[in-house]
Amino acid sequence: MTTEFRPTVTASGDLRATLLYGAPEHSADLFHAIPEPITDPFLYLEVNGHRAATISVLDADKVRPLGIDVIDPATLGRDELIAEGLTPAQLEAETCLRACRELGISAADVPVEFPVGVADHLRAAGIELSVEPDAFIERRRRKTGEQLEGIRRAQKAADAAMGVAAEMIRAGGTTSDEIRVAMQRRCEELGCDLPDDAIVSHGGQAAVGHEPGHGALEDGEPVVVDIWPRDRRSRCWADMTRTFVAGGGEPPEELRRYWELVRESLERVYPMVRPGAHGREIYAASCEPFHAAGIKTQLSKAPGEVLDEGYFHGLGHGVGLEVHERPNMGRIGDELRAGDVVSLEPGCYRKGFGGCRLEDLVLVTDDGCETLTDFPYDL
């Protein structure tokens, strides 16, 4: 996998570099550039099409096949710096400075997560740094082939795990924790990991934001199952939600009404999901059925009001190397483009009762969208 390089040009006509600092194991931006599970932090540099990293012999053989030049810290005078008694933080900052000088970098774009200590040292030495969050978001918007394959694998695991949950919930006599463990086992069989806080919330718990759920399910209760498995190979996520009735009986009338509103919301937005559409406008359309029913949303609430009932969240978000990433599908939206993977997840809730949420994962294509989720909406 290669990362597309689009250098910024300064007012003087010089090419700006791109700098990232951290470890791919913990940084989505770095894993996108170097898809290897390296745990030790280093400086990654791009300038004029040249890609390099301050990586020691411990991990050098992992990055060279990706077309990345290795700048071993030992070649930057690290031994002498250690002998001078520099602290680990000073040593790392000076190593980064020397790597920039090695490549002739005088100006660079960095993400918001770039460490302040390193940034201060580079700026004190005359290197101009500009925090450009959107530039780094753009690098990951259109998924690579490997990433999209990983998302598809993760979504297949989500579909399979949701099937396990549906069977257990409808059979009754189980708990949130038992269902969660059974879903984790199914995901593991399919090469994915499901976090311990995956949501299996029932009754009033289902109206409490990201409450993971706990305790025994009571027959007739609404049960919201929201899961986000991660594919181990690609490090990419999926995300989906379905709502069920514990014990498999007829849904309460209130839950049936919420389900119908949520389904109508989904039906309204699906035709709108295409390149050039704006997430804010799609979100507004998703709110219309709730407004017509007299139910509050983030668009109809009073300024400053804390909304904890009704449709109190956005429509969705991007999914990829992070489970919540751009583009946004809410009051602060982004224009969609081909290659985006986004969730669509309207919901409706009442405190003490619970609620209903249905979430699909979709790929924005050149002329519309492809639904990656393959699971019925039935209560």
Order of helices and strands: EHEEHEHHEHEHHHEEEEEHHEEEEEEE
Provide the gyration radius in Å.
24 Å
Helix content: 25-40%
Could you list the spans in which at least 5 consecutive residues all have pLDDT below 50? 1-13
Mean pLDDT: 94
CATH superfamily of the largest domain: Creatinase/methionine aminopeptidase superfamily
For this structure, the CATH topology of the largest domain is Creatine Amidinohydrolase
The number of E-state strands comes to 18
Could you characterize what this model shows?
This protein has helices at residues 28-33, 60-63, 78-83, 88-102, 116-124, 133-141, 145-171, 176-189, 253-269, 279-292, and strands spanning 17-22, 42-47, 50-53, 69-70, 107-110, 128-131, 192-193, 199-202, 222-227, 230-231, 240-245, 316-318, 325-329, 341-344, 347-350, 354-357, 360-364, 369-371. The protein has 379 residues and is α+β, with helices and mostly antiparallel strands. It folds into two domains: 17-141, 3-Layer(aba) Sandwich (Creatine Amidinohydrolase, Chain A, domain 1), CATH 3.40.350; 145-371, Creatinase/methionine aminopeptidase superfamily (Creatine Amidinohydrolase, Alpha-Beta Complex), CATH 3.90.230.10. The model is unreliable at 1-13 (pLDDT under 50).
Defining traits:
379 residues; Creatine Amidinohydrolase, Chain A, domain 1; Creatine Amidinohydrolase; six-stranded mixed beta sheet; three-stranded antiparallel beta sheet; 18 strands; 32% helix; 20% strand; disordered N terminus
Short synopsis of the structure:
Helices cover 32% and strands 20% of the residues.
